[in-house]
Amino acid sequence: MKSISPTCRLATAAAFVIVLFAPSVLYGAGFEVGEHTPRSTARGGTGAANTTDPSAVYFNPALLSQAGDSQLLVSSNFLRLSAEFQREDFHPPFSDTPQNFDRVENQHGIFPIPFLTATFNLGPENLSLGAGVFSPSAYGNPCWGALEDGECLPDRNGATRGMAVETDMIVVYLGAGAAYRFQLGDERSLDVGLTAALAAQNTDFAVVADANLDRRPPWREDPDNEVFVRGQDLRGFAPTAIFGLAYTDGPFRFGASFRPPIRWELSGTADVEFSEFLQGLETSLTDDGMQLDTWHAGSLRLGWGVVGGQHPADADRPRWDLEMNAVWENWSLVDNFRLELDGDVQTAAFQTSEGDNVTMSLYPVYQPKGYQDTLSLRTGFSYGVNSWLTAHTGGFLESAAQPLAYTSADFVSWERYAASVGASFQILDDLEFDVGYAFIYSPGRTVSNGRVYNPIPMSSCRGPDYDHEGCENPGTPPGNPQNEGQWNAHFQIFSAGLTWNY
């Protein structure tokens, strides 16, 4: 085991402090978009087999053995979502005049997602350690309403008001990892790794809900009988882990990692803006507590890679490497989002015979999602052009988490096709600057038989199965389909970062 200089000890301690006390406001979403770090972004989202930097804590902890003794990686993705929706005209019951909706598009711009990981040489030979603060690469705050002074407000005739006006989701992992190498020969080795992490989520959302006191169909979608609901600071914590394996045989690399699914049980508050009619009845909530329950899919990464040549900048590095990954995520766990208010609705304008305010029950709202498992196929390639420049390229294709009928505004998760490029610049002997860019295209969708309904929290037709006697059509939620019409979307990711070998 080689000795550690005082300078290296100081740098290691500083890196540890940075990792443990980094700001915890890292953004993410329920659905990953592309991948983190400039190199992975540029290389089509690969990372399960050929990662040689501290991001192995996230991609495959077994690869910490290949990441070097002491490195610090600081990077950020910058995502932009361009998406729009034009809802079909709605024909209200008992009316010959169709209701038109304004075409809406995402109003928020570039969304930053920091990423910080480090490796350490602190112990026995063949044991590698790492730690990090990171979150999924995702677009976490679409605004489908009117953006005024940074606040996303509902458009009275906006096409997504019954699905989502705004979603603002923060997911962060605080993790520490270790890998151990079993040397099987001169050029063969087996590495096993584990990252233990604490996952935290903070979510806000805004949606327009039906507040017709009649609580029976037909649902007219009358803006004068609707309420604007904001779920605020819905927070929760969950332990999780990433398990990894890596096998090296000469120039060939094989890797696999798995993160189990996470069950989210979030608690926060609800801010309800009642319609003028309900305000006139002195309507209020008896309790503003709110609960949100759902799943975050687990992921399985499988990777294969091959390296060759000698890099002009470092004889210990290959000149080129090729990697291919397959990534499976079990999003089919997300059959619905369950929302529940702790209180009920009461009106001071009406009172019972005992003199109490009239109270009406609010039932849990199950937002049907019908998500399905996803599979993505990814490829990445790097080539050392000269002693200071390494070029990267790649691409991927990914199946949709949202079936056509469940296309929704809260998360844009359709089929994706991506192409990417990037480069690494050797600034100093121990400092490298990386950049990556990916364009992700999702084919347009036309939804004609939508299965996303506006929330009717006072309806007695209750989920998740909607087979209650209060359901007009058993198996179908109350409300009208909200997602029928034309959808278009694409993403762009720019990523930049520094890797310091200290």
Textual characterization of the structure:
With 502 residues, the protein is mainly beta. It has one domain (6-501): Beta Barrel (Porin), CATH 2.40.160. Strands 1-3-4-7-8-9-10-14-15-20-21-22-23-24 form a 14-stranded antiparallel β-barrel. It starts with 5 loop residues before the first helix and ends with a strand. Mean pLDDT is 87; it is low at 1-30. It contains 4 helices and 24 strands. Strand 7 (166-183) and strand 8 form a beta hairpin. The chain is elongated and about 85 Å long.
Which short descriptors sum up this protein?
502 residues; mainly beta; Porin; 3-stranded antiparallel beta sheet
Structure at a glance:
This protein has helices at 6-20, 38-42, 56-59, 276-280, and strands at 71-87, 104-105, 111-120, 127-134, 146-148, 151-153, 166-183, 188-210, 226-249, 252-259, 262-273, 283-285, 289-296, 299-308, 320-329, 336-341, 345-351, 357-360, 365-368, 374-384, 389-398, 416-428, 431-447, 485-501.
Secondary-structure element pattern, one letter each = HHHEEEEEEEEEEEHEEEEEEEEEEEEE
Write down the Rg.
Answer: 26 Å
Q: What is the global morphology?
A: elongated
What CATH calls the topology is Porin
Count of discrete alpha- or pi-helical segments spanning 4 or more residues: 4
Strand order of the largest sheet: 1-3-4-7-8-9-10-14-15-20-21-22-23-24
- Major sheet characteristics: 14 strands, antiparallel, barrel
Number of strands: 24
Report the end-to-end length measured between terminal Cα atoms: 17 Å
Helix content: under 10%
Low-confidence stretches: 1-30
CATH class: Mainly Beta
